Amino acid sequence: MISEGREAIVIDPGCWTTAEEHALEAYLDENGLTPVRLVLTHAHLDHVFGCAWMHTRYGLLPQLHATDLPILRNAERQGRMYGVACAPVPEPEEFLKEGDTITLGNTELRILFVPGHAPGHIALWCEKERFIVSGDVLFHRSIGRTDLPGGNMDTLLASIREKLFTLPPETVVHCGHGPDTTIGEEVRLNPFLR
Ligand SMILES: [Zn+2]
Ligand SMILES: [Zn+2]
Fold it and tell me: Residues with Cβ < 8 Å from 120, sequence gap 6 or more?
């Protein structure tokens, strides 16, 4: 997320290798961007790998929904279990919840609480610029898995129907994995929500 004032919000820093950290740093440098906030849609490993580095490099602490804090605190142990090293994630000082707004330049992002894939999953909706960062809730013709701790299929489907499918159909969905889509397309074509 980038504002006209060249400030940026980094969402879900999945950088696992030093090369991936350098790629993010180079992108920020080349575009003259200063990261001012670090937001996590949820605390699964692949979304938090870069948190320790973001803290060392930019002094930012992660912000997320409080319900995912136990998962965040477990990241290093989870990494060992799966054989993918994850540096301990620094403790958040601020939490985000349904209805909060984050200001970036002259744009506002609204926090939507969309549990089901993870118990404390949030999405960031920009009404003005017609997009949403949906993490692992809704994908192009697919949805997030619900077999990880705290996951629940009924909860996930309710989150999508009640929070995402009620947004304007032209809203672009930036998914946590895979290509972008739009709310309207997924309302019509997503096979999991017929
Ligand atoms: Zn996930
Ligand atoms: Zn993911």
Answer: 42, 43, 64, 65, 66, 67, 68, 69, 71, 150
Taking the centre of ligand 2 as the mean of its atom positions, its distance from the CA of residue 44, in whole angstroms, is 7
Q: Report how far apart the first and last C-alpha atoms of the chain are (Å, whole number).
A: 32
Percentage of the residues of the chain whose pLDDT score is greater than 70: 98
For residues 107 and 126, give the distance between their C-alpha atoms in angstroms, rounded to a whole number. 7
Q: Distance between CA atoms of 151 and 67, rounded to whole angstroms? A: 12
Query: What is the distance in A from the centroid of ligand 1 to the CA of 50?
Result: 15
Mean pLDDT of 76-102: 95
Residues 6+ apart with CB under 8 A from 26: none
Give the distance (Å) from ligand 1 centre to CA of residue 5.
Answer: 31
> Quick one: pLDDT at residue 3?
63
Q: Residue 46 — φ and ψ, nearest 5°?
A: -70, -5
